[in-house]
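task queued by scheduler; priority normal; single chain, no ligands, no partner chains; default sampling; output format set to structure tokens
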Amino acid sequence: MRFTPTVRNLNKLLDLKSLKMLDHYSQFNPSPLTIKQFMEFGKTGTEEKSFTFLRTEIVVRLSNIMKEINLLPGNLLQMPSVLILQDWYAQSFRDLVEFESSSPNSRVNLVQFCQTLKTVQTRHTNVVQTMAQGVLELKESHTVDHQTDMAIQYFLDRFYMSRISMRMLIHQHTLLFEPNADKDTPRIGMIDPHCKVKSVIMEAFQNAAFLCEEYYDCAPDIEIKGQTLVKNAKGKKVGLELVYPPPHLYHILFELFKNSMRATVETHSKSHELPEIEVLVAKGEHDVSIRVSDQGGGIPRHITDHLFHYLFSTAPRPSMTPTKAPLAGYGYGLPLSRLYARYFHGDLILNSYDGYGTDAVVYLKALTHEATELLPVFNKTSTKQYKSSIPTADWTDPTFSGSSRGTYRGGHWT
């Protein structure tokens, strides 16, 4: 399958001036932030400073990923859903570069910028589903070879991570500075300085159980053990807390619980009693770990490698426009959840025991200065990933899957 020149679709979507600005901004690397920096700025930063930083930073992140979109196979770029998506990104780029030389001291500019960010956020609401639909359209209309498939997988990790990071920046600004911003909340934008881990676990579990009961008329119970209580500075036992965006942790756990519940119910459909889903919570100096263990029959080793492959699912594929929330089947729940975990340099791993069950372990950074954004960068290294042939597996490495995921360098992903 042919690979398209970088400017092919952008020429149709952007005028000459915007194209030059895209070239300019895409030469800069994004600036990864730590949770500590988000927190400190949220407490002491001004709207003017946030405006000055974000009018450049969001455009840099946007232009980096827009350049990368156009390295995708030409046939994928012509899919109806991907054309719609490219148009959204081009429109958002045009909207945001309007503020390049605007004065941060103008109240009108600040209000317009905040409104523009909310418009961009709304415009990009369905980006995940739209890109997934575009890949499905390609697979249904063209033969996709292994190299092309690997290039698409590599891109989707970077594309969705870029989206997570831009939404984080937009949410921080709007939650802190929009006209009707809640000034009394203990949260700093999206980040909760006292995110109660057990509460998020229970919320995710109960919502997943509600879905499971809708589909199967039953759902397994939960057992939480480990360090749900820790001693505070005064030696008193309190619920385990973490400085983290609760929606990100909820997203990860909700996905894991849905998977565990479906596997448990389907494996034990003829049993009188369902085995519990066991959750272990641990906190050390550097990491908070959450292990979700089920007895859902496990997954064969030759399949586990595919579980983080976009659009792979062990469940039947539901409608892309469902009338009610599906329990499983779209095939991007797990890979997206892993991105949410990795966004602040955590991780999500699966250990499965075929014939018994699966352990999913979420690792999160316990220290705010270590929780740095992991961001994709558009450069020569990333460009080569779309054109190089797939490397040969090394027989000494049983985990090798033939896909190259890029490398981490100083908070950047190349």
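post-processing summary
- The chain has 14 helices and twelve strands.
- The first helix runs from residue 10 to 13.
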